[in-house]
Amino acid sequence: MAGRTENPQIVTAPRELAQKFAPVTFKPEDIAAVEQVLERFREQNQSMIVDEVRRLAEAWHEASKEYGADLVKNCVAIAHDLGGYGGTLGFPMVTSLCRSLCRYLRLEREILPSACSVIEAHVSALQVVAAKQIKGDGGAVGRALSAELSHAIEKFEGDRARAAKARA
């Protein structure tokens, strides 16, 4: 096979950093202090998810009028940041929804109009999660939101595959 040698050499990477810093351990009181800081942060920023989801919905409303590059990039930036807030503030569904949403927002400009229903399904799911303050996996509501979103994604991907096949 091209590119392979008869006698490959295995090189072991140096473990200098691991030798200098390992094992890393944390005292229980340090962990408790960090957890307290995070809890205070969550308490102080309870409305952040609601506010940022509202901001995303407004930004997408504007972007979906003309799909301008700057407007869509703004949506991507908001969704990206919102996904990070979700993890920090205890909303893992927000993180996974935003990660998925960003994939669709980054589609080519000419494809975005056909992805509008998928993007709006993401935004709608985020609005429900924010309004109901759904944490964790969301239980029955989380499963229902996931099922609705999966249906919208499957329809979009199916339509896209059929369109590609028709062009070929």
Structure report:
With 168 residues, the chain is an all-alpha fold. The protein has one domain (49-167). It has helices at 16-21, 28-44, 48-66, 69-89, 92-105, 116-132, 139-167. Helix 5 packs antiparallel against helix 6 and helix 6 packs antiparallel against helix 7 (139-167). The longest helix has 29 residues, at 139-167. It starts with 15 loop residues before the first helix and ends with a helix.
User: What is the ordering of alpha helices and beta strands?
Assistant: HHHHHHH
Query: Into how many domains do the coordinates divide?
Result: 1
Helix content: over 70%
Radius of gyration: 22 Å
**Largest sheet descriptor:** none
Strand content: under 5%
Number of DSSP helical runs: 7
Low-confidence stretches: none
Mean pLDDT: 89
Approximate shape: extended
How many beta-strand runs? 0
Beginning-to-end CA distance, first to last residue: 33 Å
Helix/strand-derived category reads mainly alpha
Give a nutshell description of this structure.
The protein has 168 residues and is mainly α. The protein is 73% helix and 0% strand. The chain is built from seven helices and no strands.
Entry keywords:
7 helices, extended, 168 residues
Topology summary:
Layout: H1 16-21, H2 28-44, H3 48-66, H4 69-89, H5 92-105, H6 116-132, H7 139-167
